[in-house]
Amino acid sequence: xxxxxxxxxGHAGIEAxxxxxxxxxxxxxxxxxxxxxxxxPCNPSIGGIGKGQVVREIDxxxxxxxxxxxxxGIQYRILNDSKGYAVQSTRVQxxxxxxxxxxxxxxxxIEGISIIRDKVLSISKDEHFCVSTREDIYKSKKLIITxxxxxxxKLHCGNESFEGGRIDAEKxxxxxxxxxxxxxxxxxxKTGTPPRIKKSTINFDKLIExxxxxxxxxxxxxxxxxxxxxxxxxxxxxxxENTINIISxxxxxxxxxxxxxxxxxxxxxxxIEDKVFRYPDKDNHHIFVEPEGLSTDLYYPSGISSSLPKxxxxxxVNTINGLENAEIVKYGYAVEYDVIDTTNLNSGLEYIDxxxxxxxxxxxxxxxxxxxxxxxxxxxxxxxxxxxxxxxPNLSRNDSYIGVMIQDLITxxxxxxxxxxxxxxxxxxxxxxxxxxxxxxxxxEKMNINDSFDEYLKKLKEESxxxxxxxxxxxxxxxxxxxxxxxxxxxxxxxxxRIFVSDILKVPSVDPVDFLxxxxxxxxxxxxxxxxxxxxxxxxxxGYIDKNSNxxxxxxxxxxxxxxxxxxxxxxxxxxxxxxxxxxxxxxxFNDLKNINGIRQATLAFVASGSY
Amino acid sequence: xxxxxxxxxxxxxxxxGSLGKSAISVIRISGPIEPGILVKYLSINGPIEPRxxxxxxxxxxxxxxxxxxxxxxFAAPSSYTGENVYELSVHGNPLNIKRIIRFLIDKxxxxxxxxxxxxxxxxxxxxxxxNQIEGLDLVLNSDSGFAIDSGLELLSGNIDTDYDxxxxxxxxxxxxxxxxxxxxxxxxxxESLDLFKVEFYNFKNYAHLLKGRSSVDGDSLIKPKVVxxxxxxxxxxTFFNRILKRxxxxxxxxxxxxxxxxxxxxxxxxxxxxxxxxxxxxxxDNLIESKGIDFSNNLxxxxxxxxxxxxxxxxxxxxxxxxxxxxxxxxxIEPINNGPIGPNPSGPIGPSPSGPIGPSPSGPIGPNPSGPIGPNPSGPIGPNPSGPIGPSPSGPIGPKFNEVIFNSESSRxxxxxDLTDINDDFDEFIKRLIFFKFExxxxxxxxxxxxxxxxxxxLNLLIDDFSNLLELEKDFGxxxxxxxxxxxxxxxxxxxxxxxxxxxxxxxxxxIGK
Lengths: 612, 514
What we know:
Strand order of the largest sheet of chain B: 8-9-7-10-11-13-12
Radius of gyration of chain B: 30 Å
Number of helices of chain A: 20
Largest sheet of chain A: 7 strands, mixed
Low-confidence stretches of chain A: none
Distance between the termini of chain B: 54 Å
Helix content of chain B: 40-55%
Strand content of chain A: 15-25%
Number of strands of chain B: 13
Shape of chain B: flat
Oligomer: heterodimer
Distance between the termini of chain A: 47 Å
Number of strands of chain A: 22
Radius of gyration of chain A: 26 Å
Structural class of chain B: alpha/beta
Order of helices and strands of chain B: EEHEEEHEHHHHHHHEHEEHEEEEHHHH
Strand content of chain B: 15-25%
CATH class of the domain at 193-335 in chain A: Mainly Beta
Mean pLDDT of chain B: 71
Helix content of chain A: 25-40%
CATH architecture of the domain at 193-335 in chain A: Beta Barrel
Low-confidence stretches of chain B: 1-5, 280-285, 329-400
Number of helices of chain B: 15
């Protein structure tokens, strides 16, 4: 008898069983023997805009993704480096093989986790969950399903199509067959992956090299600035007119366009066919050529995901600058799969009609390793704390991207795979990578794990409070500031004789982090780098955050209005249909209500007026 | 407002006119009240169907006849307020009306509606938008045809096309901002930044367009003021009396006779203008008079049409719409230097290039050769002898007064006349000039609702500040925060701008992804 069984050893499954073990629970991870734990079947990178924030949130909540990414990271980059701290995100290219190895090793080393390599055949629930595999039957109090694209998975490559979760792995049966009573969406989602290219056949001289950036801060908050393994470069090239022509000529051979695939793909992750047919005027598409690992011979050409027949794939790849003689090792393909209806889940990603059953990851219709991991962590925290009879914290959309994602998922049905964008958050200036530890600490406190990691976070928080005070209350002599300006050749306008540190940090031409470092060094104050960085950036944005909240206050005042959904359900002025939706989602604020798909304007007006 | 939130009440009020004697008055009831309760006091047999008029007797509880009424019932939600609405046409004696309302309040458990409460409920039940309510206010409470037209436009729920363009441009701007932040790898760093900047200037233009439309003072169009200026004893009051065709202002030969200002309604083609005779402007120690002068300088800022009466034409006449050089038989002719209301470059109708009615090349009454009253000889009312209302003696309504000069430098008319010795054609000509400016101002669809004007002005301030910031600040967190502030204002003006709209827009227009 386990406390929790997790089905599926992908990025969601790893976080779910790892965090459960932190609560000292007995966990089983059941995963197919043919698939690596923590495998990365598509792009060889972790992080990205919006996603980097999620990785750091996972890390500060006690998750594994950031740690494994660092252990396997072969190229680091800050995206939006020149566009200001609030919109910067970290992306790490990983050695896929190492990533899976590290993940497996880490989980295997944890005593509370039993890894079971088997295929689940059926699941039932009486008092406990009962999971039957080919070999055995397992029981648990809670069950977390993280099966990715494997539900009724179907693969397409040209006119060949076959069943499977991935090109080299069998599918799992439809969830309905395993577990009746689960409502899946009546649409199927689709995703695809590009062909992989053999390293020795790429002409790197013709590509633009992008080296790993030594300044980028490692994902795991306890790792220092040093890289753990050897660093590699990525390369940039472009499609051209010939590439486009070949794809256009073969339109009828594309499963996406000849009706063979019915699933809906994400608009932000289009195949090269999509790009060509939807944007016929553009022939110059960027392609990033990324190594899949240190020792592997595979390169991942990001930007040309395709399910065209193999010969066509090779033909168009060879039109690309630097890839004229490239050989394809694995061909690109598309996969269609079932997803569940996430509006049936609560904020712990628990299936409302079957208490104790959680869903996380791509099976919930999201895309991306990071989104999956974030959900796995939340499902794991909630399931664990329920076992312990405690109330798990709900991440708010006001201070975390994970919170944004969870709320979006459970209040809305999507027509396409869901991906995080920073624009989905209303508070981009305050939800940043650099202040993740300060945003997550109160959730960590509620999780009540109380290990050395919590001690460390607490120390950082105290340090930040001290430094914020210093920034607000310390004024400098003009000469000190001018000294700095001379050194960095920057001009400060309108200087007065004494000037507050906080005012200088706001000057557009001053880099706040660099200046604060300089002043602290002069004043002989020692602070850790994460604290200096966070305090400097927060101080720069403070005025803008206030201004924004002034403008949006009027809107958000109504949005934040607390609702009693039982009272809503009892009201005579709300239509039956709206009540059905309210019953499902159980909105806690007016904003929750507003975000429910299909809620009527009249209902909103009625509730907004406070008259329900 | 607090009572308004209690929607369990049914409310009642007299909906037609004020309590004076009239043949018929309409009493309106709105709320959850069911027709069955009302029917007890009526002579109608059987159920009341919605949207039918019933002639019925109205009895009190002891079966005494109260009145003969016509009842129309509008069932929720298909009614003005979205609730059950009853309209009772009763005989219009004030005593009768009061008696019936008191009776209904008692028996049906109603309460008196607060001012505007019916419309408030319509707003709350989404039967009317805020814009529509504002339109309704204009339709009901203004006494100019133009204001009623603007009100009806709002009331009909038409979203102003310029608002729509602004909203669309904003969506595009935010989409491009998201492209810069999230997808510059796909689109290209420089390319996406350039697109963003270009769209920002588009957006700025739309906002400025609205600013132009709201910079004509809304009040000045709802009841436009025609203000007469001039040195003491220059003939303002004489002109005032002429145009009103009666003696309203005290006319005398003593300077400074008009110490306070006098205003009267002047109807031209059914538009209600307010004509104002200001205090004679001269330097004075007299306290009362100096207050009058302050006041007339204030009026200058808010007036719609400015007429300068003088004996010598001031050197700068650009602040005026019309200059009348009078040969009044009163008083003596005195030389006039630059008066205290001389050339004010920042004045509301000054020659500012961006001014809405300044001499902008594309401005409706600018000095553009093709402009309607520009100095072009072929202009409709230009000083061309063949113009339809040209001041030529041979024109169809050519006034028989001494001389009309078109000053091309300031594109203003200067009329020379002996105000005591000219015929009605002169007055007619002046009225046409005033009305022509009014028509031109309306052509530009001015925005008159104060809330809109206020939001548009805030938006423009924000945008102009941001233009400066955009030169210095490369931080896209800050840029996006500032742009989100603009979005909050646009939302205030016209309603929701949603994240999903933005993302849809990105994916519809850009090629993005792995």
